[in-house]
Amino acid sequence: MQRDWATILASGEFFQKTLDCLRSHIAILDSDGTIIAVNATWNAFATANGLAAEFCGPGANYLRSCDNATGDCSSEAQVVANGIRSVLAGTQEYFYLEYPCHSPTEKRWFSIRVTRFEIQGEEHVVVAHDNITQRKLAELEICEANRRLGELVVTDGLTGIGNRRFFDRVLDQEWRRHGRFRIPLTVALVDVDCFKQFNAHEGHPAGDRCLREVAEKIDQIVGEEGDVARYGGEEFAVILPMTDANQAKSLLDDILVGIRQLEIPHATSRVGRGVVTVSIGSAVVVPHGQLSTADLLTRADHALYEAKSNGRDRCVISDIPLPGDTQAATARSRALVP
Length: 338
What we know:
By secondary structure, this protein is an alpha+beta fold. Helices cover 45% and strands 22% of the residues. Helix 9 (195-202) crosses helix 10 (204-222) and helix 10 runs antiparallel to helix 11. The chain is elongated and about 105 Å long. The termini are far apart. Residues 326-337 have low confidence and may be disordered.
C-alpha cells in the first residue's frame, strides 16, 4: 500500500507526534511570544510542577509569563524573555542559558535553547528546555574534589596548617608586594626545642600530638596578622606582612609564652623548664633588588641558630638594613627572652 506522504507530513497529527517523541521540553512561539504548540514532555513537566496552562500552555503568552515571573527564578526568567525577543528580532541567531530551577524537594538545573524559523513570512521560535541536573551535580562534585585536592596540595597532613608549598607561594607574593610598596616584611622560623629527645622519650604518637598542639597554638596567636606553615619536621614558619622588628617582638613573645603555657611535659629537654618550648629566629626586611627571599630565609635561619646556641626558649630578631643604611653596616640582631 503506497502512503500519501505529502498528506501525512502536512497533517497536524504527524507534527504533534514528532514533537512528543522528543525528550526536551519544547514549545513553539509565534512572533509576539504566544505559544502555538507544546510537546508531551512540556505538558508533563507543567503538570508535575503545578503550572497552570494559562501561563505555559497553548494560547498563553510565554514572554508575558516570563516578564511577570516571581520567586527564586524571576531574574533568570527575565533573561530568558530578553533572549527570546533578541532571537525573534534577528539581533542574535540563537539564545542559550543554563539556570537553576530547584524544587522544594530537590536541586535541579535546566538549559534553554531558542532558535528561529520563518514560515509564511512570520518569525517563530522553538524554545527547548533540557534537564541538565545530573551533569551539573557531576560538575559540582568535580569542583569540590578539585577544591579538596587544592587544599591537600598546600596543607600539611599532620597539623592541618599550610605546608612548605603554601609557605613558598605566600612568601613570594608578599615579597613582591612589600618590595613594590617599600614596607617591612617579617619571617620567623619556630623550632620545637629538643624534639628528637622528646620523640625518643615519649614516642612518635606523642610527638605527633605535640606538633599538632604547637601548630594550633602558633596559628591561634598569629591569627589574622599573618600566615603559618609547617616548614619541615619540628620547624614552623610564620610570615608577618607589614610588620617591623618592634611589632614582631610582641607577637613572637606571645608565641614563646603560649607554647610554654601548653605545659606539654618534656622531661628530657635541655631548657630545664620541664615542658615543651620553642626557639625562634626571625628576619625583618624591606624587600629590594639586592636581596631575595632566599637571603631573608638564610638570615632567619642564622637567627634561629643563634637562639638555640644561646640556651633555646628565646627569640632572636635580625633586622636587615636597607642599602646605604649608615646606622648599621650589618644586620642588627637582638635576643628576646620574655
